[in-house]
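Dear support,

Our group has been running a series of protein-ligand predictions, and this particular one with zinc ion is the one our PI (initials K.S.) wants archived with full inputs and outputs. We had some confusion internally about which version of the output was final, so please treat the block below as the authoritative record. The input we submitted was:
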Amino acid sequence: MIISRIYIFNVLIFQKGPSDVGCNWLISSSAPDHVKVLLAFPRGERQAEVIGLACERLGWYVTEVRDTEEALDQFQARCHEIVIIDRRGRYCQQADEICRALNNIHHQASIIIAIVKKSFFTVSDQDKISTLQVLDNGYNRALIECSSTEIVMNELIGIYANEVQPKLQLAVAHSLYLAVHRCRDMVHVTNDRHFIQFANEVSEKLLGYKLEELLNKNLSEIVICENFTLMNQQLQKGREFHGNMNCKRKSDETIMISSRIIPFCAYGRRPTHYIYIYDTTYLLENVEVTSTSSSHLHPRGSSHSLRSFDIGSVGSDLQRRSSVAKLHNLPLEAPITKVISLLTTAMTDAVSPDVVAQIDKAIEILKTTELYEPYVREADEIFNDPVTSDLIGALISAPQYSRDSRRSSNDSSGRVSQVQRILHQQPLKTMSKSPRAPRDIEILLDGCFNWEFDIFRLELLSGRRPLYYLGMNLMNRYSVPARLNCDERTLQNWLTVIEVNYNVANSYHNSTHAADVLQATARFMESDRLKVLLDPLDEVAALVAAAAHDIDHPGKSSQFLCNAGNKLAILYNDLSVLESHHAALTFRLTLSDEDVNIFKNLDAETYKIVRYNVIDMILATEMTKHFEHLAKFVNVCSIRTEESQSEPFSDPVDSSVLLLPENVSLVKRMMIKCADVSNPTRPLTFCIEWTKRIAEEYFRQTDEEKKKKLPVVMPMFDRSTCSIPKSQIGFIDYIINDMMEAWNAFIDIPEMITYMKQNYEKWKEYNERGISTLQDVERLQQSAELQMPQST
Ligand code: AMP
Ligand code: ZN
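Confirmed final output from the archive:
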């Protein structure tokens, strides 16, 4: 009974230590039923018997000795946790001799107790504190003689809990300290202001400083984090941070080391210490290898600094860690290397075999698979609907190798010389001088930020030049001429040239689609979130990219061009063929003439930034990268939706993280992507018109593939058989829905989602009503139900 209570007490005491460091495992000899007690009583007598009995009842081991020699022998052999020496009356001197001898052996975990008479505390000199006399002689405390076994038992338990256990804990802490001091990873412990309190042995070797020089130095003088802002944010929140550190050696060389920083709260809630652990095992091996000939490191990655590992002598985890460490110490590091390293560490630390297996599997996938290339699960119902599987397959898979080497007639090489011709055609010149649009167009453009903006009416009113009118209006609203330091006329010319280079013959990829994407982009940028996130040049680049993103689209997919051996496919090596062409042609045309070049007054650096952004956004419209862009955006910018707010660990997005340039890029890519395929989220009549146009374009491609005996990219998109409603249901299910939900959660334009859901239900209804072909859809458009004004 007593023993089990002591045990609970024992456990509680040990749990007072750092919450994530369990040191119980090191103190196996501390279990209370194994406590060893040395009794040094020169003459066997009653007091020794009482103590012996008390120990026996506690289940403790007792060794009795009579003199110093015996005491030393036994103590050295057994390392007793408690030593009790008879220091009464005439034995006082001998007792002190034993105590001194034992102290000389320096067994730190032991408690030495002097048994004294009651009078010891009462009759001594008033000015002297008796206990001090005992302590001065090397005892830890005095215990008054006692003939009651119960009282002695209670005293012994008190002594064990309050004195023996803390000493054992201290001994454990020392052993851990030694382990850290000697381990091969460099370790620094700092206070909350990052002043070094502890640096282990390896630090000297790697950094070239003496330990005394490191102590109390501010760590930031030596160690610079690549991603300091993120690191600080994480640490402030009490979270562990993983990242690369640039460690400056005393000799001024810098070594990049993968590291983790663990905040530690010794008391309270705020971190009192930071533990820096640098993955230097592998570096250290280099140091050891090279130290025979030279005292400093070879440059990282140089072949003679690499030493092969003794594979036979290490476990597979260790091998993996080593090879990851090797990768880490190369001068360049891909984020995937960091991820694999973190997972490897997690796997090494994981206890459950299931978790280990799952992490192992994850690492395999990360190492071997095209990470963002989606695959359709065999069981998925996408295979049940051939129209959907055709469409989604064609949209998201990269072009296959060309099976046909015939050339197509698509040729845009003469376009640059067209610019002059276009600019000098009379009607355009006249229009350049009179930027005011006809009244009805102006009235329409007043609502250019509405999600219900009627782009088809603008197409009609503008004589199929919606991009010019909408572009001038929106770009002026966004002060594009002022921001680019160009005159309005250059912008007019630019929009004219861009619009003329869209193919009017395409039913879908013409300048009305470009204008539609431009309108959606401008609407998105009116949102509060994007107003904060995007700077003026971002906005300009986005408008330029949206207007030009499909320029000179041939009305056929990249896959078609590859299959046909088209010269664009040859030029761009079958990679991002159309998007590369749109971006390249945009700049070719822009730079071809001073009167068109809206960038001509930008300084070189600003031009570079705008050019990068325009290209990046145009390339982001490539659908084969759809899941990659979406996944990256969701991972970084995901905002809590209503359902996820109840989840305890879902964090609202951190705006300082969003403002990192790489994350702003993710947002800009998502913005143009959503604008590009926003047609299923527009009011029903617009949505149907867009669907009709894209279906017609797909059908024309199939017609031509068949005619030219090319591989048919989407066999289901045959005008005689294709179910248009089914294609839209699949398109919304697999491409649009998740993306628009995520985008709406980010910028809050709920009408997009409302229309998307309504349209989805309508396509289902049309499908059930047997509406299928293009003619069916055209009849539907003429029907009374769609001639009614659409409610919003
Ligand atoms: P872009 O060529 O830049 O316009 O990229 C958008 C892709 O999505 C194109 O391949 C279009 O064919 C496709 N797309 C857009 N809207 C639809 C739609 N309603 N149904 C099927 N595919 C669509
Ligand atoms: Zn497009």
